[in-house]
Amino acid sequence: MSSYKDLEIFQLAFDLAIKIHHASLKLPKFELFEQGSQIRRSSKSVKDNIVEDMEDVNTKRNILNFLPIHRILR
């Protein structure tokens, strides 16, 4: 797997965030800015967390790949 974009869960979260964003814009005016903003931010944070976790996994994998080479070179 080369990228977080290849993950099915990321694609689902991304599509859902777009749908939620559009739906939140249809809220009544008195809810549009406060609750609507919170709904939009929280729906986007799901996909952002997936990306962040995937980057952490790749970083750990790269570090683990580097460690045996580093030991040999010493």
If you had to describe this structure to a student in words, what would you say it looks like?
82% of the residues lie in helices and 0% in strands. It is mainly α. The longest helix has 40 residues, at 34-73. The model has no long low-confidence stretch (mean pLDDT 81).
Blueprint of the fold:
Blueprint: H1 8-24, H2 29-32, H3 34-73
Helix pairs in contact: 1-3
Q: How do the helices and strands follow one another from N- to C-terminus? A: HHH
> What fraction strand?
under 5%
Total helix count? 3
Radius of gyration: 19 Å
Q: In short, what is this structure?
A:
The protein is mainly α.
Features:
74 residues; mainly alpha
